[in-house]
Amino acid sequence: MAGNSHGHTPAAWTGVTISFIGFCIAGAFMVLAEPLGFWAGCAVVLLGGVVGMAMNAAGLGMPKESEELRRARAEAGQLQAH
């Protein structure tokens, strides 16, 4: 697991942070029995996903692996196993 950097990008951190804040808002308003605040918190959770995807599209996320890089990584793994 230490060999990859899954999720360690500005896009991932920002999206998760916004979603977590929305989760906290929704949870607090659920305890307070305020439906409008609960749904506002749910909207913030969704906003976190949208912001994360937008930042990823803007180049702040993980680049997608090319087929050539995948093959090279698999080949290196096979050589290392022997």
User: What is the 3D shape?
Assistant: elongated
Oligomeric form of this entry? single chain
Q: What is the mean predicted local confidence, pLDDT?
A: 86
User: Roughly what fraction of the amino acids lie in strands?
Assistant: under 5%
Q: Which class best fits the helix and strand makeup?
A: mainly alpha
Give a verbal description of the structure.
By secondary structure, this protein is mainly α. It has helices at residues 10-31, 35-60, 67-81. The protein has a domain at 10-62. The protein is built from 3 helices and no strands. α1 (10-31) runs antiparallel to α2 (35-60). The longest helix has 26 residues, at 35-60.
What's the gist of this structure?
This protein is mainly alpha-helical and 82 residues long. 77% of the residues lie in helices and 0% in strands.
SSE blueprint and pairings:
Blueprint: H1 10-31, H2 35-60, H3 67-81
Keywords:
elongated; mainly alpha
